[in-house]
Each structure stands twice: as C-alpha cells, then as structure tokens.
Design goal:
about 230 residues; Rossmann fold; DNA polymerase, domain 1; seven-stranded mixed beta sheet; two-stranded antiparallel sheet
C-alpha cells in the first residue's frame, strides 16, 4: 500500500541519539545530586517524554523531574543534540518518498525547536512537509498529543492513508489511537517484543526493510509482517 502521509519518530528511527541523550541525562542526574547508573541503563530515556522518564526511572517527584529536565536541556541544547548520527540510508529513503509525492511528517516527543535544528544539521529538513514535536513548556507531553497536533495541522482527514513509524511502543500506540497503520523499527531502542506487544502492524529490521514497506514498488528489502 502506498501511503499519502508518513509520520516518522526521530530518536531511534531516523537518527541514533544515544551519546547526546545519555550524556545529558548523566549531567542532569549529577546536578540533581543523583548517582548515575551505567550508561546502557539510560537507553530507556530514548523515546519517552523526559518528564515521564525522570519520574518513572529515577523516582523523582513532579517538581524534581521538572528541575532535572531543565538541567538536561542546559547541556542538550548546546552540545547534546549534535552528539547524534543519522542512520545509513535515511536520507535516500526520505528523498525517494518525497519524489513519490508522499507528505513526510516528523512526530517526535523532542521539543520542535531542537528537532528542527537536528533535521537541518543532517540536511534532511527539506524532505519534511511538517514538523510536529513537544514544546519547551511541555504542552504536548505524550506521543498521542504530538500525533494529534500533526493530524490537525496537516488536515489529515483519512488517517487510514497515513502510517506512523517508530522504535518504541509510544509510537505504535499513538498511531493506532488515530487509526493509522504502524511500523516498528527494531534497529532502534524498543525492540521487537515491545513493538509487537504494542500491536505494530509490521516490523522492519533495517532502513532498507522499512523502504520496502513504505514504497512497495521500490527496491527490495526484508520485512516481517505481524
């Protein structure tokens, strides 16, 4: 099926932000007087909203979590957002999707001001029809809030013609709430089990596999149908 709209998550889907995010979390924890755990245990911060993560994973109160988010942004806004790598093949995929006439939308829990800078940094902003993210004031804290903003802003009336692509359960659950097809990418940070439990319609273990799903008449790639 050819989709009219493709909504992409950012972290763990288009780019690998592990260094920038974990270093910024470590910075925030240290400034909060909390001993940071091993770096790998911080990968779970990649994807969910930061307020949720500091509360859920660090046992912080709402006030403590808000303070930690502020510390996190001190580092991330100047250094961390560029400690990032674009996944191989992403630029080419976006270029071909746009050439097909597909409207490409970013739907990320990262504040849109950071997201715009990251897309420009990797020279892929030109492929996007619209960028939907959270805000610095946390007015769109959940992925479903971000997707609702994208749907409304882009005038998507038939959401069955749209697909949400992401690496965490929040992407899948958010897309399904709006009647979209969903594709989970297992090369990110959620993993196949998490994505399947959330109800992903299809899985892709590489960017080339993702291309076959999104461009069924394009080049061949492996995919797994749920």
């Amino acid at each position: 099926m050819k989709y009219d709209y493709v909504l992409f998550d950012l972290d763990g889907t288009l780019t690998d932000p592990a260094v920038g995010i974990t270093e910024s979390v470590i910075y925030a924890l240290e400034k909060s007087g909390v001993t940071s755990p091993e770096r790998e245990s911080l990968y779970k911060f990649i994807g969910p909203p930061l307020m949720y993560s500091f509360r859920e994973y660090c046992g912080m109160t709402e006030e403590e979590a808000a303070r930690a988010v502020g510390y996190y942004r001190e580092r991330f806004s100047s250094v961390g957002l560029f400690e990032n790598e674009i996944y191989s093949g992403v630029g080419e995929l976006l270029s071909r999707l746009k050439s097909d006439g597909t409207k490409i939308i970013l739907a990320t829990s990262k504040p849109d001001v950071y997201s715009e800078r990251i897309l420009e940094h990797f020279d892929i902003r030109k492929y996007f029809f619209f960028v939907a993210g959270n805000t610095l004031s946390e007015s769109r804290p959940e992925k479903e809030d971000v997707i609702a903003y994208a749907v409304g802003s882009c005038g998507i009336e038939d959401t069955s013609r749209a697909v949400m692509v992401g690496d965490r359960k929040y992407d899948i659950l958010g897309g399904k709430k709006f009647g979209m097809k969903t594709v989970g990418v297992t090369y990110g940070y959620g993993g196949a089990e998490e994505l399947c439990e959330a109800g992903a319609d299809e899985l892709a273990d590489s960017v080339s596999a993702l291309e076959k799903i999104l461009r069924p008449h394009g080049k061949n790639a492996e995919s797994v149908t749920m």
